[in-house]
Every structure is written in C-alpha cells, then in structure tokens.
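Project standup — Tuesday

K.O.: blocked on the structure for the chain from last sprint. Re-posting the sequence here as requested.
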Amino acid sequence: MPSILATAIASLAALAAWPRAAGYPALGAYMPVSNVLEHSQISSDVEAFNDALAGDEPNYAGAEEIYEHGAGNSCKSPTQARTLQGFATKDMTGETFYDTFIAAGFAAEWWDKWMLAALGGTGTFSGLSRTKRVTSLKKGALGLVTLYASHELEAAIDKAAIPETLSDSGSAHAWDEGWAFYYGAAADGANSPWEVAKKRDGDFPNGTEVMTAIVPHFNKGLIAVRNGTYSASEAEAARDTIYKLWAVTYIRAALKYLQLAEKFYDEKAHAEGYAYFMAIDGWVHSKSPTAAETMRSKLDITLTSIPAGSYCEAKAALEAGYAAMGLNCSNVGTFTDEKITCSEAQACAESADALPAGADAVAGVDGTATDMQCVVTEDDDDHDDHDDHDDHDHGSDISAAITRFGGSAMAIALAALVPSAAAGAA
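H.V.: unblocked you, prediction finished:
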C-alpha cells in the first residue's frame, strides 16, 4: 500500500495538470514573470503611514510604529512584515544609485536618520512646523521606496551574472520586485513613486511622459536578466535609463515647488520640493555637483522664506547639467503654471542623445499571486534579503504548492497530509 506521503505527492502532481491562471497578474502596464504581489503592497504601508500623519494632530508615534515594524500589508512570510525602515537600513554599498549619495556626502542609512529626525522633531527638524515635518515625511517615504527599487534592479543584474541565479525565480524576480516597489499595489499606482511621475507629467505636459516612457525600459531590463535572453549590457542600459527618468520626475518636482515657494511662500510647497529632490540628489550630484548643491541649498528646509532669484539660479544650474545627466530640456519640459520668468535665462541646449528604445512586455508566465497575511512584531529585522528564499522547509513547500494550485480546498487538504506523514515516519 502506498504511503500517505506518496499518495499526497502523487495527488498534488496530478493537480498540476488542472487549468491555472495564464500569467502572474500585471502591475499597471508591466507584466512580471514572478509573484511580487506582497512586494507591491508596500504602497499600502505608505498609505497607512500617511494616514497616521493626517490632520492637525499627527500621530507621530503611530507613524513611527508603521515605519519601524510595518503595517502588515507587505509580508515576507506569515510571521514577518516588510518595513520601510528595513529599506532605509539596507547596506547597498557597491550599487550604482546608492553609491552616488555616499559620494555626494550622505551618511550611510541617511534615510533612516532623516525619517526618525522628522518623526521625532529632532536634528534638522528641530523646531520646525507640523506642516514641514509631515510633508517631508510623506514625500520622503516615496524617495526611500525609490532607493529600494534601485536596489532590486542592481540585485537583478548581479544575480543574472551568476548561472545558478539567472532564472525567473532569481534574477528576473529581483527585477520584478523593482517594478513592484516603484508602481505599488493599487490599480492606479496610488501611494507609489510611479504616482509622483504621473502627477509631474501633468505639470510638465510638453516633456517626456515618464509614467508611460519608463515601462518599456523595465520590460527591456527584464528581458535582459532572463535565462535565454541574458545581456549584462542591455540590463545596465535599461537600469541607467530608468534612473534618468526618475531624475526627470524629481527634478520637475523640485522646480515646481521651489518656484511656488519663492513666488508665494508656503511651507508645504517648500517641504515638497525639499523632500522630493532628496530622492535624486545623489544621482544628480554624480553628474553635476553644481546643479545638486545649488538646488539643495535653495530648498534648505530650515529656511523661512525663499529669497528672490533662487528659482532662476537653480533652474539655470540644472539646465547646465542636463547634458551630463543624459537629458535634454525637452525631456523635462516646462511647468504648465509658470509663476516666475527668468529674464536672463540662456537657451537650454538639446545636446544629449535621445533616450534609447525600450521593449514590449514579455509574455505572461503561468502562476498566481495570493495575498498573504502576516503578524506585525517589534523584533522584525527586515532587510528583504533575497537569500531568505534559498532555504525551504515543509511549510514553505506547502505554501508554494497551495499558491501553485490556486489555493483550492483539495490542494490545501492534500498539502496538509505532507507534514503529518513526515512526522509519522520520523
């Protein structure tokens, strides 16, 4: 008589022939080849973080709890939540985007120090208003997620260079995670860095439409880190183009809000420009130190007003650096509601090469994405290390089986037999 374990395995194998969903679900216009639903749900943590900070009496303690321990939306496992602080404290030394910030003078874990200072009203934020602190925190959270999305792209390129991890579950999964963090879980991209791109596209309608232009480069990078179509140079080129398009978004934000804050001083506009520019400061600095340092000084959050001429000076410094960034003025475009005319402005050169072509979305890969629930605890040590997925126990194998077979009652029941049989044989 066959053992219970053998019967369960045979039954589960038979279930593999049942019809399954054709492809992991798309996130916006991007088609992943792996399950990144939980990763995308970090945008729900951002939403919860923002909700805690709403109103005239922000719940800074509640927001800090979400920042440090998660809100239970983005789960690494049933017992471990993914956290924004885990993003901020990840050592990304050696990664191109991260390293530009360190070279520009940012300390390691700068986002963590900055977020905790804003939450506690200490350091740079000592004595600053509720408006400046809350606005900086909300916009800074999106810059932090942008940094972590860059980490996933870098991790994908590194994994693709190793034969053992050049796969949809290895290198391609990491690349998918980059998009998932960038786009978020909501159908409209709400509470994500992609939503910032969408809004700034609307503010600069005659420039590059980043929200759509960036997708083909994520597609191209995904193709380049998959087995059978691997190309290190194509992956790196896609990554670098994505960084340029991120720069367009955050430069637009800095220009918009610096201009508004100078013309009609407003603490919220000032803080938006300040926090948004921080998301790309290091990368801009790596291309044009003068541009980064000028914009950084003009948006210094401790200023109580923006001196006349600040916007034009910062705009001129950025435009002088566009060629080094691989951008043209036509990529950035013109703010649709200009309030300040820069009388001594020089013609903005169009000397950079056009952005390269991207690629169409890949075909869907069979798989399903189930929504995991997890417990938020105070001892989470979350750095989202991909190596966490290398070791599998019976529980993780069962979870994978349930996910693979669509979470059906039969699959769950059969999977439940596996540990029982194993225990009986021990």
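K.O.: great, moving the ticket to review. The first helix runs from residue 4 to 15. Residues 1-21, 386-426 have pLDDT under 50 and may be disordered.
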